[in-house]
Write a structure and sequence with these properties.
The protein is α+β, with helices and mostly antiparallel strands and about 150 residues long. It contains 6 helices and 8 strands, in the order H-H-E-H-E-E-E-E-E-E-E-H-H-H.
C-alpha cells in the first residue's frame, strides 16, 4: 500500500466513516486509553483495557444516528468498542478494539458478545420470524448431493 494512503488515514482517508453514515464524524484519536464501561462489564466481559487508534466520538454521533452502546471509553466522550444505531431502523455500525499494532486482544470474543447484545435489542426481536429452509439454495444443494 502506498505510504500516501497510510498518511491520509488508510484507503478510506478522512471521508470513510462520513461516507458510510452520512454525517460529519471522524475516528481520529490515536493513543486513546480505553477502559470498559458499565455496559462493557455487563455485555462484553472479556473486554480489557487497551489503547484505541480510532474511537468513535459521542459528540459527533448526531441525528439520524445515536449511540446505542459504548462498551469501553476514555471518560471524555471517545468510545471503542461501541455501536451506533440509525434511529427508526435496525441499521447499526459497530467498531471493536481499533488498535495498532495488533497485539492479540480478545477481539473475536468481544465481537461475539457485541452481536449477542444486538440480538437482544427490541428492534431485533419484535418482528423476527424463523427462516423456512425448504427451497433455499443451501438445502436444495444439500439434497441434490445426498442422493448422488
Amino acid at each position: 500500500m502506498p505510504s500516501t494512503l497510510l498518511k491520509a488515514g488508510g484507503a478510506n482517508g478522512e471521508n470513510g466513516l462520513k461516507t458510510i453514515i452520512n454525517i460529519n464524524a471522524d475516528m481520529w484519536g490515536d493513543g486513546t486509553q480505553i477502559t470498559p464501561t458499565a455496559a462493557g462489564a455487563e455485555w462484553t466481559p472479556t473486554l480489557e483495557d487497551f489503547v484505541s487508534a480510532r474511537p468513535f466520538k459521542d459528540e459527533q454521533i448526531v441525528d439520524p444516528w445515536s449511540v446505542e452502546a459504548a462498551f469501553g471509553d476514555n471518560g471524555a466522550g471517545f468510545f471503542d468498542p461501541g455501536i451506533i444505531k440509525l434511529d427508526d431502523s435496525s441499521g447499526r455500525v459497530g467498531i471493536c478494539m481499533q488498535e495498532r499494532p495488533k497485539r492479540g486482544l480478545p477481539r473475536g470474543q468481544v465481537l461475539i458478545e457485541m452481536i449477542d447484545f444486538i440480538s437482544q435489542q427490541p428492534d431485533m426481536t419484535a418482528d423476527t420470524t424463523p427462516v423456512e429452509p425448504a427451497g433455499k439454495v443451501a438445502v436444495t444443494w444439500g439434497n441434490i448431493k445426498s442422493v448422488q
